[in-house]
Design brief:
Blueprint: H1 2-25, H2 30-34, H3 44-67, H4 74-78, H5 82-92, H6 118-134, E1 145-147, E2 155-157, H7 158-180
Antiparallel strand pairs: 1-2
Length: about 190
């Protein structure tokens, strides 16, 4: 029962992310989607593309978990650092930024202009992501350990992963909203 309640809360936060993107960015132009407040800052489109890339990096493990074919490797079963990594990522990837974190190279968005289909791609990707999450309701989230798609030494339990990924979703949507409300944003 606790698993089901937790999964439902994660799915609700995911739906809120989708609504926030629709409400905030449905009427923005291609120029506005690609506008950056500074050369080293991300545009709205890059924030959304980063979320697609980041979420997709977890799809292979989530597909196996949801499909019942996932097998933990030795490191996942016995890593003494799993709880620490989970706590660290939940703390660092909160919705409200406490400290800016540089994205790993493999999760960075394209540095070129993004086409105006980015919002639809984001929505489709989020729908797939939420569908995978909903298929994990019968999984022991605390005992299912996965390896980071970025760094093979980092492991965390599925409950922590789902928590920080949905926080991460809102973190970058909030970043994109800050781009939109920037005083220099093209009108």
């Amino acid at each position: 029962m606790a698993n089901e309640i937790f999964i439902q809360s994660i799915l609700q936060k995911g739906k809120e992310a989708k609504e926030k993107v629709s409400n905030e960015f449905a009427a923005v132009s291609l120029e506005q989607l690609n506008w950056k407040p500074s050369p080293d800052a991300w545009s709205i489109a890059q924030c959304l593309e980063h979320l697609i890339v980041s979420d997709n990096s977890y799809f292979p493990a989530l597909q196996k978990i949801a499909g019942g074919t996932y097998q933990m490797n030795i490191w996942e079963k016995y890593s003494p650092l799993t709880g620490i990594w989970g706590w660290l990522f939940k703390d660092q990837l909160q919705e409200q930024v406490k400290k800016k974190i540089k994205a790993p190279k493999i999760l960075k968005p394209s540095m070129s202009k993004v086409d105006n289909g980015i919002i639809d791609r984001y929505h489709k990707n989020l729908d797939s992501f939420l569908n995978l999450i909903s298929n994990c309701s019968n999984i022991n989230l605390g005992k299912t350990i996965i390896t980071s798609p970025v760094t093979r030494i980092v492991t965390y339990n599925l409950k922590d992963v789902l928590t920080f990924l949905v926080q991460h979703e809102h973190r970058h949507i909030n970043q994109a909203i800050r781009v939109k409300i920037n005083s220099n944003f093209p009108r």
